[in-house]
């Protein structure tokens, strides 16, 4: 069980071992990653749509997701508020004129949900008997992790500098530990084993990863719960960041989780200024590595 759960992590570390210098190839990899993410999300939706008694599960899933989102929100923000209190991050005055189009970013945040909904309708209405959906999704995820490993290694980031960034490391650990505590506390609410609750809590906003890994191990309904929990984190972060970043930058950066180094980074940059960028990249980078490792380890304990 341990070998099988951790095997899926090997592509991430394999990709991180390669150094590439061809910028055109890195551009191709960027678009491949984006396409693979949506392909995986459609497959996640297909798996949900094919599930027997799907409609009867939706109410339970909504109940579980609401508990997860609220518990994570409270635990993360409380822990990150304390982190900022003891180790404040001074970002200086913010540039109010440099504001991104939050409407555009918010709509972009809804695209993953739309991909899963489309996949769900396809699986429920037309492809209920389509075989090997889970196998294809698993192989697609492994390819995605390999490409992301390549991106992380060749993004011009020094692993040593990222690990030495005290603020970024502290924010990532605070966010990660508080999420795990929230997940553990929610074990009775979710009605799962403690290790499964911790695995679900280890997504840290990486919805394409958590949806497939949790779905493979615990079934498509739980894959949907994990996905919704993480995609809602991203959407909430987009609304939260510009509101709190000037007073509590650690809360804004940390709550974004793994997305702080990519999707929510433009909002962090425009709302908090350049001082937030290396901290956000360090935090998001560390959480991106921790997420698949922790999920693999916790799922292997079942």
UniProtKB/TrEMBL annotation:
Keywords: Membrane, Transmembrane, Transmembrane helix. The keyword Transmembrane helix applies. One of its GO terms (molecular function) is L-lysine efflux transmembrane transporter activity. GO terms for cellular component: plasma membrane. It comes from the Bacteria. Pfam families: Lys_export. The chain crosses the membrane at residues 6-21, 28-49, 61-87, 108-127, 139-156, 168-186, 206-228, 235-257, 277-301. PANTHER family: LYSINE EXPORTER LYSO (PTHR35804). This is Lysine exporter LysO. It comes from Marinobacter litoralis. The lineage of its organism: Bacteria, Pseudomonadati, Pseudomonadota, Gammaproteobacteria, Pseudomonadales.
């Amino acid at each position: 069980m341990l070998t099988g759960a951790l095997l899926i992590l090997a592509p991430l570390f394999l990709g991180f071992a390669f150094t590439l210098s061809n910028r055109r190839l890195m551009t191709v990899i960027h678009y491949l990653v984006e396409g693979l993410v949506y392909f995986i999300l459609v497959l996640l939706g297909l798996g949900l749509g094919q599930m027997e008694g799907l409609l009867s599960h939706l109410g339970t899933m909504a109940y579980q997701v609401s508990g997860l989102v609220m518990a994570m929100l409270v635990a993360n923000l409380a822990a990150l508020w304390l982190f900022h209190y003891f180790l404040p991050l001074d970002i200086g005055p913010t540039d109010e004129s440099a504001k991104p189009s939050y409407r555009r970013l918010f709509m972009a945040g809804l695209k993953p949900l739309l991909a899963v909904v489309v996949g769900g309708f396809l699986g429920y209405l037309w492809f209920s008997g389509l075989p090997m959906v889970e196998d294809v999704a698993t192989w697609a995820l492994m390819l995605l992790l390999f490409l992301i490993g390549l991106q992380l290694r060749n993004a011009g980031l020094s692993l040593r500098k990222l690990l030495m960034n005290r603020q970024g490391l502290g924010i990532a650990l605070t966010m990660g530990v508080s999420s795990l505590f929230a997940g553990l506390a929610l074990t009775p609410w979710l009605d799962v084993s403690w290790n499964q609750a911790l695995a679900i809590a280890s997504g840290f906003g990486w919805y394409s990863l958590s949806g497939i890994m949790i779905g493979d191990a615990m079934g498509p309904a739980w894959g949907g719960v994990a996905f919704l929990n993480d995609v809602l984190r991203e959407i909430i972060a987009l609304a939260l960041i510009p509101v709190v970043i000037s007073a509590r930058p650690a809360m804004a950066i940390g709550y974004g989780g793994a997305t702080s180094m990519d999707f929510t980074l433009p909002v962090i940059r425009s709302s908090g200024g350049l001082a937030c960028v290396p901290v956000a990249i360090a935090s998001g980078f560390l959480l991106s590595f921790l997420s698949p490792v922790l999920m693999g380890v916790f799922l292997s304990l079942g």
